[in-house]
Amino acid sequence: MRARRALLYVPGSDTRKMAKAAGLGADSVCFDLEDGVAPNQKVAARPLVAEALRSLNFGKSEKLARINAIGSGFEAEDLDAIVPARPDGIVIPKVNNADEVRWVSERIKNLERSNVIPEGTIALIGMIENARGVLNLAQIASADTRLQALIFGAEDYAADVGATRTREGIEVLYARSAVVAACAAFGLQAIDLLFLDFHDSEGLRGEAQRGAQLGFSGMQVIHPNQVPLVQEVFTPDDVTIAQAQRITAAAAENLAQGRGAFALDDKMVDMPIIKAAERLLARARAAGKIT
Question: What share of the chain is helix, strand, coil (3-state, %, to 5)?
Answer without folding.
Answer: 50, 15, 35
